[in-house]
Write a structure and sequence with these properties.
Helix content is about 40%, strand content about 20%. It is an alpha/beta fold and about 170 residues long. The protein has a single domain, classed as Flavodoxin domain (Rossmann fold). The strands form 2 sheets. Strands 1, 2, 3, 4, 5 and 6 form a 6-stranded mixed sheet that branches. A two-stranded antiparallel sheet has the order 7-8. Helix 1 links the parallel strand 1 and strand 2. Helix 1 packs across helix 6. It starts with a strand and ends in a 9-residue tail after the last helix. The structure holds flavin mononucleotide. Flavin mononucleotide binds next to helix 1, strand 3, strand 7 and helix 5.
Length: about 170
Amino acid sequence: MSVLVAYGSTGGGTAEIAAWIAGQLRAEGLAVHLEPAAEISTVDDYDAVVLGSALYAHGWHVDVRRFVHRFAGRFTDRPVWLFSSGPLDRSADTGPVPPIHHAEAALRDLPAREHVTFGGRMTTEAHGWLGRVAGQLAREGHAGDFRNPERVRAWASRVAADIRSVPGRDIRG
Ligand SMILES: Cc1cc2nc3c(=O)[nH]c(=O)nc-3n(C[C@H](O)[C@H](O)[C@H](O)COP(=O)(O)O)c2cc1C
């Protein structure tokens, strides 16, 4: 009996948020499998799912979009939560951010219970094209780490409580 935490991340910031979520769920007694969305071949073994994506050009990471396409309709009897990570300012912490169209589609198609947006991170240590973009953003004053581990863990704690209260299942690890 376990919870899948799957994610799509290019620069590693969203991967770390997924790890914070997985750590919180484990701390609250749940069995958790943490893996990139691209590596997931089956969802049959999981009783609940948390799926998260980095935001690029107002869209989700391609691996997360593929996950949604592949497993659409498979969660009518199992709860799913979604998160996005992107804004390079404090906006995600100061008010609700409307879901982007990929998140709206996933809420409907998986289906999922809830979507939340967390702040993002742009580090000038990134390699390749991301590093070049990060350098440009840094020169414009936009680089930085706007993730909020306390908020992420508080959200994960709510998810853990909801998972434990899913009727008819005992999915404590
Ligand atoms: C080319 C580019 C486009 C981006 N587009 C968006 C966007 O549309 N919305 C947003 O909130 N953040 C956007 N971001 C910020 C990223 O989502 C943020 O840096 C995030 O933490 C990246 O996650 P990752 O490190 O897991 O790849 C963009 C960043 C880059 C480099």
